[in-house]
Amino acid sequence: MAAAGTNDAYMEQIRNKLALVPERPGCYLMKNAAGEIIYVGKAKVLRNRVRSYFTGGHDGKTQRMISEIRDFEYVVTANEMEALILECNLIKQHHPRYNVLLRDDKSFPYLKITGDEHPRIEVTRRVSKDKGKYFGPYPNAFAAHETRKLLDRLYPLRKCRTMPDKACLYYHLGQCLAPCEFPVDPAVYGPMIAEITRFLKGGYGEIKRELKRKMEEAAAELAFERAKEYRDQIIAIEKVMEKQSITLTDAGDRDIFGYAADKGWMCVQILYMRQGKIIRRHMSQFPHYGDPYDDFITFVTQYYSDNPAMPREVLLPGPPEAAEPNGTSETAVSADTPETEGSNDAPETAGPVDESGTADFARSPETSVPNGTREAAETAAPDGAAPQTGPETGDIAVQLREWLGVKAIVPKRGTKRQLVAVACDNAKVALEEKFRLIERDRERSVEAAEELARRLDIPSARRIEAFDNSNIQGVHPVAAMVVFTDGKPDKKEYRKYNLRSVEGPDDYESMREVIRRRYVRVLKENGPLPDLIVVDGGRGQIAAARDVLENELGLDIPVCGLAKDDRHRTAELLAGDPPAPVPLPRDSREFYLLQRIQEEVHRFAVEFHRQKRSRSMVASRLDAIPGVGEKTRKKLLSHFGSLKAIREASVEDFKALSIGEKLARRILQALNEDEERG
């Protein structure tokens, strides 16, 4: 009753604030009961957008977010452009849990030509404001490293991160000018860096032709080994740079975006076009909670906010309601003259995707855009009705053009429109595949649980709770429980137990204590009871669990045990009264489910035991030092984090904790002596 009253108070507060929200552009920040920002959004009309969350119907994921909202704030901006930039900055600052967060952009590698006196080529994942030149990002880290290796063979730039004392093997191979030993005029590097820059921007055709000419000359001079080297370099270029099939005649650099959204999930596909050729694609999948198109644009803005390597042009899909017949012109914002497009033939689409999310393009099915729907453009809505929201196509292009400084296009016809359709189609296919895999996995898990119930002759096995104990010679005894619902682990239901009444390595008494504590609490809190209890052990553990359930708590819950073989693997299932082996085929789904349960509860228990043992060891080492009490030990561990860090600290580092020089030296001496003994 108290909780209901509190919720009513929050809703009354929200209703009062909704009446004051202005009809102006800006950003809004949704907060939970703890005052944490859980969602940031932008809107052309703040009042309509914010009201839409508290009126009308929503899907399950959005409803979950709304159920946590207890307050909101908003920031009014002069225009939509300012709202777009502010939204991106707020998301990067607060990392709201329900926003689209670009978690993997920082992992993209770049190729960098350092700005040193004697430059080198390196692969980096950190972009800094230095004198270096950055190229990328490369969705495929393997491609980045292969490209670097190729360029290192082609150009004699410095290879060593730090200057050696004398020339190394690279000098003798002709792959380095050895500035460590011989004077090299920095001007020598200018033409090489210019060629490398042209190469990385897609101009590898000229370099390949030059290598082919050198190969033919070497072959004519009967220098076949040198000709072979040139041939291998040409093959490497083709392997790294020419994985493509879709081509535009203008040889431009573009990033082509497409998206699909369904069931609270979004998939974004990015096609990387360099020199008019699509060479790679990248795919990102994530849950979303707001308007699909708005969340897609949020992804795009975050993707480019810290990207130093911008293409000449960005192609974007428009909002579904903005779709027009093929005869209409594309929406573009640029002072450039229109670019020449290739043929209007249907472009080819993606082939198999590797583990890195990169794909080659090889086949040509029909192109189509996702059939998803989107709300109409924002308009004023009467109270009690869910307002319709969404940016206009031209607005998006204008905002991105002004902010990013690149040509942003929402094409409506021609080859560019087909390229966007390819990206959208691939996003849709990837999302459908994800749902099919989830559904297939769910069906297999549910069927395995049902088959297990049939073999045990019990009504159901939808909720299974499994128990395991862990100790070393009775020291630091702990227990753990895991829950599987419909054959899938339900980790929010997992529990850990510090055993209190057990002395020595008594596995049976440990099982009694954990079963007793678990189900006394379940009964007290009126929680859900399991359909089946699984204990890690044999007949003794089963008997101990049954004794507590039946004779102490009056519960009638089926109990089975999982016995292990000499190699600590699941050997057999024991059930019944008295417990007897239940025949299960080793290749059956129900046996695989039991293996997963046993491995998971064992992992959870052992992990907890290790944590407890580690904390005890750390505490005992520090407590054994004269002058170190509980407060000092806590300060040391809180400040340094580990014994290793304390051991490696200097006497000066202890002054920040108000620990004198004498005690600091005593601590360091004791820990170093322990290290030498250990």
E-strand count: 22
Low-confidence stretches: 322-392
CA-based gyration radius: 32 Å
- The helix fraction, in percent, is 40-55%
Report on the biggest sheet.
Answer: 8 strands, mixed
- What spatial form do the alpha-carbon principal axes imply? globular
Q: Which structural class best describes the helix and strand composition?
A: alpha+beta
List the total number of helices: 18
Task: Write structural notes for this entry.
The two termini are 58 Å apart. Strands 15, 16, 17, 18, 19, 20, 21 and 22 form an eight-stranded mixed beta sheet that branches. A six-stranded mixed beta sheet has the order 9-8-7-10-14-11. Strands 2-1-3 form a three-stranded antiparallel beta sheet. The longest helix is centred in the middle third of the chain and has 43 residues, at 414-456. The chain folds into five domains: 2-99, GIY-YIG endonuclease (3-Layer(aba) Sandwich), CATH 3.40.1440; 111-184, no CATH class; 254-336 and 344-371 and 392-435, no CATH class; 459-601, UvrC, RNAse H endonuclease domain (Nucleotidyltransferase, domain 5, 2-Layer Sandwich); 624-677, DNA polymerase, domain 1 (Orthogonal Bundle). 42% of the residues lie in helices and 19% in strands. It is an alpha+beta fold and 678 residues long. The chain has helices at 2-18, 46-52, 60-68, 80-94, 141-154, 169-172, 189-200, 204-220, 224-241, 292-305, 393-404, 414-456, 507-525, 539-552, 589-623, 630-640, 643-647, 661-677; strands spanning 26-31, 37-43, 71-76, 110-113, 121-124, 133-135, 254-262, 265-274, 277-287, 313-315, 331-333, 349-353, 359-363, 407-410, 463-472, 475-485, 488-489, 495-498, 532-536, 559-564, 570-575, 580-582. Helix 8 (204-220) packs antiparallel against helix 9 and helix 13 packs parallel to helix 14 (539-552).
